[in-house]
Amino acid sequence: MAIPTRIGLAGLAVMGQNLALNIAEKGFPISVYNRTTSKVDETVERAKQEGNLPVYGFHDPESFVRSIQKPRVIIMLVKAGPPVDQTIKTLSVYMEKGDCIIDGGNEWYENTERREKAMAELGLLYLGMGVSGGEEGARHGPSLMPGGAFEAYKYIEDILLKVAAQVSDSGPCVTYIGKGGSGNFVKMIHNGIEYGDMQLIAEAYDVLKSVGKLSNEELHQVFSEWNKGELLSFLIEITADIFLVKDDKGDGYLVDKVLDKTGMKGTGKWTVQQAAELSVAAPTIASSLDSRFLSGLKEERVEAAKVFKSSGVSDILVDQAVDKQKLIDDVRQALYASKICSYAQGMNLIRAKSMEKGWDLELGELARIWKGGCIIRAIFLDRIKKAYDRNPNLANLLVDPEFAKEMIDRQSAWRRVVCLAINSGVSTPGMSSSLAYFDTYRRGRLPANLVQAQRDYFGAHTYERIDVSGSFHTEWFKISKQAKI
Ligand code: 6PG
Q1: Which domain holds residue 139?
Q2: d(CA 428, CA 470)
Q3: Which residues pair with 73 in a beta bridge?
Q4: Any domain includes 2
Q5: Alpha carbon of 107 to ligand 1 centroid (Å)
């Protein structure tokens, strides 16, 4: 028995079990522990079946901790929140100065910072590590976002470099993210971007299906074709696959039988809350969250559909003849341009937080580690990395010369899709809010002058002028009354 093992993993649900096997497969003997001990036996059995991998199971926390070589490193993969505190409590009593715990869950970054402080008081190190890629990624190569004590990262850098997804031209999908809860924060934004991507893809599907009348076979063809070009990504690939799956409980395709109510675990909501907290506009991500809320109102929507149908408003307001091929090409461009806006928002959120917390995060490096393993992996992330390599202080992805050109090239198609959707009564909140973001950001002058005047009118909030510096207040009411006379 290879005791002491190199590392430990506690929490053997789907993600934990797969990550443990991945670590063992890369040549690092690993100790595993779970409160429900049957999971321990199941993992050890799987390790045997999958090639006698060096996985050692323990039914009690003490022997688990003691089986690991010093300084000990234990990855926890348990549900975020109280279960993390509980696991830390269980394990830390057997740990010694210099040992380290890593939380691999989708944890709220401030919880990680609180725990890092508490652990430091015990002489223990702590990391909050975002892990993306689902079950498959955990087993064969996830994208890893470790943040916290740099010293702790160094203990296991060799393991993480091998366990992470490997991308041929840009290396392993892991990097030390930064101090404190930065690893969790970056993973949270990754998930916000994931919400945006999924919503935009769903809208492309809706326009093609509802307005373009594409069948599932045609949708499969379209998404497969898109996955060969600039939209190449994991989410486009799985979308193409979904349209192939027939219903095993009846006629037709399974996707048409899936209830239109999107679930969520919370990271997208946190992203939008953080956007408000940081005063950074993230309308595409926010609209994807709103769409999930509205999707949840299934019964209300069914009733509303009846109300409007009885007054003559059907699902599709205008049944217009469309050139299918042109529509497909326009939607592809609209999706791509909208996606750029969404990533620009996510990146700006990370930068704003990094500045607030002094994390010094490198946006290009984050784009690099998202190129493989994670849910938002896409060929286009390479272009984002290059944009930040060209200019690390880029104010917004939209103004990078390459992206700016792409936006200009695609804007006519984008506007056509949004107009067509609006005229057809098909909601495209992600694409529309991305376009509004672009149209707002690219304008040198906005109607904010009028909002400022209104604020000063009713609340004497003052305003600045474009021609003279300083702060001004005007008696708008009095002067306007005089002007009327
Ligand atoms: C990942 C995913 C993963 C999970 C999301 C789902 O990167 O592997 O993001 O973390 O699938 O948490 O989130 P919702 O349930 O909120 O859609």
Answers
A1: 7-180
A2: 42
A3: 100
A4: no
A5: 12
Query: Does one domain contain both 357 and 210?
Result: yes
Question: Does the N-terminal peptide bond of residue 71 adopt cis geometry, omega within 30 degrees of 0?
Answer: yes
Give the pLDDT confidence of 253-291 residue by residue, as tens digits. 999 999 999 999 999 999 999 999 999 999 999 999 999
Ligand 1 atom 12: the closest Cα is on which residue? 265
Identify whether residues 348 and 318 lie together within a single domain.
yes
Determine contact, residues 11/34, Cβ cutoff 8 Å.
yes
- C-beta 268 within 6 A of ligand 1: yes
Q: Which atom of ligand 1 is least distant from the CA of 134?
A: 8
CATH number of the domain that residue 118 is part of = 3.40.50.720
- State whether the beta carbon of 132 lies less than 6 angstroms from ligand 1: yes
What are the pLDDT digits (tens) for 155-183? 999 999 999 999 999 999 999 999 999 99
The reply to whether ligand 1 has any atom less than 6 angstroms from the CB of 154 is: no
State in Å: Cα 203 to ligand 1 middle. 20
Q: Say yes or no: 108 and 192 in one domain.
A: no
Q: Are 104 and 80 in contact (CB under 8 A)?
A: no
- Identify whether 285 is part of a domain: yes
- Catalytically annotated residues: 187, 194
